[in-house]
Structures are given as C-alpha cells and as structure tokens.
Amino acid sequence: MTREHLFPLAVERVMSFKTFAAEALADYKTTAAVAPSSRYLAHAMLKPLSLSEASTVVELGPGTGVITKALLDVLPEDATLLAFEINRRFYRYLKKNISDERLVLLKTSAEHVGRELRRRGRTRVDAVVSSLGLGLMSDRERRALLGGLLPFMDDNSVFTQYQYIHGLELKNGRLRRFSVGSLLHQYFDSVERKMVWRNLPPAFVFACRK
C-alpha cells in the first residue's frame, strides 16, 4: 500500500476514534465501549464464523464499522449483512462512510431482530456478531434479543459476542460485575471463550452454538 493510500486510511481511523470517543462520553449506555474495536478483536470475532458461503449475517451494534468492514471484506457478493445500530451518531457515520449494497443498516433496537428478519423473509442466519453491552441492557431486552434469535439459528449458525475484561452490569442504577458467559450458557449448548489482550480494554470473545 502506498503512502498516498495510507494517508486517507489514517484520517478515517482518527475520525472513527473521535466519533466513537465523543459518543461514549455523551451516551455510554448505547455505546457500551470507550473506543472502536481493534483489528485483533475484529479478527477474533470473525474467526469462528463460516462466512465464505454465508447468505444472511446479522451484526448487532456496529458502532463506527470496524467489524462491519471486516465482514464485508469476506462475505460473498450475494450475501446480506443486516446491521442494527440504535445510536444516531453511529448510524449517520455508517451511512456516510460505508457504501455497499450488501449492507442493510437498521436504526432499530437489537431486541427486534426476530421481527426484522421475518419482515425480510429470512428463515435462518449463518452468523450473528454482537458488540452490544449486554450487561447494560435490561433482563427483558436480553431475553427478547437472544430468544428472538434462536429460531433463526441451526446447528451450523454461530453467534459471537465480546465482553470487556472488567465485565460490568447496570442493576438498579448501580454497576456490578456481570458474567456474559453465564448468560449465554442459558441459550446456547456450546459456549467457547477466548481472551484478546490487544484491544482497549482487553476483552473476552465468546463463540456460541445452538
């Protein structure tokens, strides 16, 4: 890659970080993060997935699109990527910065994923990639999200989710430790965990199968 190509790429990364940081300060509950995912975290989130022949993939909480772009780099030309982003600033950023016919960007809550899949005539998903802060969601929202996804997943579908190493939950207005792994075990038969140190902050990646 030439220096001329590197410069706009560097500018894009800076803008992505600035957009993310500004929104994290303004509304941490909907961002659930302090910085965009590193490429190492993105790689760990995609590694368990079979994407080369995927037809329907769901991304929950794409933020500024680090994982979105990684998905589009490997998805087939006829695949569909449904991305759920409720944060207005991130939604506008994605609309402006990612132009790909395979990307269907939805400004709606992830708990409506089942409804949105049915509206589009989808009966199954190949993969689900979630960057949501599950600990900052209510029990009802978590049940609606995970319960709504399961009917669309089969033995070949994989769900990946990350959780920062500190793992917090908002309960009755207070922050406390929260185990995403324990939650995921309630919905999936197989839950594998991997540590990614090269991220801010370091994070666990969970790969879940029905």
Structural write-up:
- Helix 4 links the parallel strand 1 (56-60) and strand 2.
- The chain is an alpha/beta fold and 210 residues long.
- The strands form 2 sheets. Strands 3-2-1-4-5-9-8 form a 7-stranded mixed sheet.
- The protein has one domain (3-209): Vaccinia Virus protein VP39 (Rossmann fold), CATH 3.40.50.150.
- The protein is globular and about 40 Å long.
- Helix content is 38%, strand content 22%.
- The model is unreliable at 2-17 and 23-29 (pLDDT under 50).
- It has helices at residues 3-26, 28-31, 39-46, 66-74, 88-97, 113-119, 139-149, 180-185; strands at 56-60, 80-84, 103-106, 127-130, 158-164, 168-171, 174-177, 190-196, 203-209.
- It has 8 helices and 9 strands.
Number of domains: 1
CATH class: Alpha Beta
Overall mean confidence score, pLDDT? 85
Work out the strand percent: 15-25%
N→C terminal distance: 41 Å
Which residue ranges are poorly predicted, with pLDDT under 50 across at least 5 consecutive positions? 2-17, 23-29
Look up the CATH topology.
Rossmann fold
Structural class: alpha/beta
Topology as H/E string?
HHHEHEHEHEHEEEHEE
Strand order of the largest sheet: 3-2-1-4-5-9-8
| C-alpha-based Rg, rounded | 16 Å
Characterize the largest beta sheet: strand count, sense, and whether it forms a barrel.
Answer: 7 strands, mixed
Classified in CATH, the superfamily is Vaccinia Virus protein VP39
Number of helices: 8
Query: Fraction of residues in helices?
Result: 25-40%
Taken from the alpha-carbon principal axes, the silhouette is: globular
| Total beta strand runs | 9
